[in-house]
Amino acid sequence: MWGIIATWSMSLESLKNASQSLEASDSAAKTVVTAVQKVEDYPFYKSVGYGGLPNENQEVELDAAYMDGDSLAIGAVAGIKDFANPVAIAQSLSQSKVNNFLVGSGAEKYASQQGFKRKNMLTERAKKFYQRRLQTTSQTAKPYAGHDTVGMICLDQQATMTCATSTSGLFMKKAGRVGDSPLSGSGFYVDSQIGGASATGLGEDIMKGCLSYEIVRLMTEGKTPQAACDQAVFKLDHQLRQRRGTAGDLSVVALNSTGQWGCATNIADFSFVVATQIAPEPVVYLANPSNQQTIIKPASAKWLEKYFAERSSTLT
Q1: I want to staple 180 with a disulfide (CB 3.0 to 4.6 A). Which of 20, 186, 198, 237 is the partner?
Q2: Has residue 244 been placed in a domain?
Q3: What pTM does this model have?
Q4: What is the overall mean pLDDT for the chain?
């Protein structure tokens, strides 16, 4: 049995290729990194990789992580600039016993020494978004409300599981700000004997609940991925609202070692993509919260057309 699940509709094309790779018995390690790289390379996705929106200083700082569910090996980078595929750098770091999580100039030095591709990740399109934001606010620029981290969990035919994340983080974030995406247990976690989870949303709030690890822990107790996602997300959402009066965006996807999947969210129309050996053609789903549960339905062709049109529209 193989399967792969990813956050956001921007992962659709990646999962079409990934499903073919998994059907051909490619490894989960190769498949998940290649799939995330495809999202990183696409210039119109303004929250990941090339074309990602910059920080307050108009610099694109990228975060990424990779985890092997067999060995529990982890690699991560944060605040890295001018490298094309941070997820591949993260995977490389996972192969060492120590120095698995590097940030800023240290991550860049390592990437350069290992021969990873340098690239100016700030596009003209992203510059236009930045200038627009400066022109439309009368006060110090605030972080953009959207935070569309790409997160994927993969299961191959050899029963190995992996996961990977990549993001440019909040638009107009403070220089050096890091969210949940590269943090083990918050933005991602996977154990081949149990399953994996990945989160997207407001990292500062996701980190308060170690959301991805909590979902895997609940699956260890015998809960399905869907039940685990619902319990973890709505418990954290309740805690945050009770103690602080508000909760940021919390969305998760999960996959277990038998190919079952789940998703939960506290926002409207959270999109994600799934492909499995049983249903190999990737499907985009929309998730919506309802009474401590998540209602999941396939996205309509009209919704998908609008989604992709908005992300590739011309800026003036």
Answers
A1: 186
A2: yes
A3: 0.96
A4: 95
